[in-house]
Design brief:
The protein has a 7-stranded parallel sheet with strand order 3-2-1-4-5-6-7, sandwiched between helices. The chain has helices at about 15-30, 40-50, 70-80, 105-130, 160-180, 210-215, 220-230; strands at about 10, 30-35, 60-65, 90, 140-145, 185-195, 240-245. By secondary structure, it is of the alpha/beta class. It has one domain: NAD(P)-binding Rossmann-like Domain (Rossmann fold), CATH 3.40.50.720. The chain has 7 helices and 7 strands. The radius of gyration is 17 Å and the shape is globular. GO terms for molecular function: oxidoreductase activity, acting on the CH-OH group of donors, NAD or NADP as acceptor. Pfam families: adh_short (PF00106).
């Protein structure tokens, strides 16, 4: 990870949970992390936490709703003007809705796809434009899900969430091909965790007894997967990393 010290990372959905832990872990290795989310107060708390630990990295908290393209573009404009480049992009922001597709709302359909798919495409496009001009190897990491590989194993009604994650699986492959064909020095990694113990679990509409029986990952365990992918040698690309709790059984 030494080669990433002092480099610039952008982490979406960084206010809580997986995103916040990833940003904190990157700061431990000396990265300058632009942490974006809708809740600026939570991002400020993250910055304070990192400063209190006297970590070598730095957090730049910035408010951004990734469902709005203009706000994403403003973030990249700021990065280009103030920091010069972006070396690592962690597409983490995502939403989940506990409802059936067959009687769901169109509003929720659109919200899921806007945040879980379109925003990632926009961030990836803008990051590649900056990374392609850098002398440093770039790395794009998308926080996917096991539901993006095996939707039939998900018995809970999560609307278009699994569909959106399948889209991420396909997007990673397409972007990797495009980057290779253009001869760019950029890696693309998909990290697909099982159920993670975060605030998102509250959206599962499960009883506390059922939740207590679930085998779940911690946000730190997912963040360690990010560090693993980043710490491989420049010649090694981790295409897909599936992380689940030992003997996980999905509801």
């Amino acid at each position: 990870m030494e080669r990433w010290s002092g480099k610039i990372a952008l982490v979406t959905g960084a206010s809580v949970g997986i995103g916040a832990k990833i940003a904190e872990e990157l700061a431990k290795y000396g990265l300058k992390v632009v942490a974006i989310a809708r809740r600026l107060n939570k991002l400020e708390e993250l910055k304070t936490k990192v400063e209190a630990q006297k970590l070598p990295g730095k957090i730049y908290p910035m408010k951004c709703d990734v469902s709005k393209e203009e706000e994403i573009l403003n973030i990249f404009k700021w990065i280009k003007e103030e920091l010069g480049e972006v070396n690592v992009l962690i597409n983490n922001a995502g939403i989940i809705v506990n409802e059936k597709i067959i009687d769901g709302t169109t509003e929720n359909f659109r919200n899921i796809m806007d945040v879980n798919v379109i925003a990632i495409a926009i961030c990836t496009r803008e990051a590649v434009r900056l990374m392609s001009k850098s002398k440093t190897q770039g790395h794009i990491i998308n926080i996917n899900s096991i539901s993006g590989h095996d939707a039939k194993s998900i018995k809970l009604p999560f609307s278009l969430y699994p569909s959106s994650k399948y889209a991420i699986t396909g997007m990673c492959e397409s972007v990797r091909n495009e980057i290779m064909n253009d001869g760019l020095d950029i890696k693309v990694t998909s990290i697909s965790p099982g159920i993670v113990k975060t605030d998102m679990v509250d959206n599962f509409n499960l009883s506390q007894d059922v939740i207590n029986k679930l085998l779940m990952l911690s946000d730190k365990e997912v963040a360690e997967g990010v560090i693993y992918a980043l710490s491989r040698s420049p010649n090694v690309e981790v295409n897909e990393l599936i992380i689940t709790p030992l003997h996980q059984s999905l509801p």
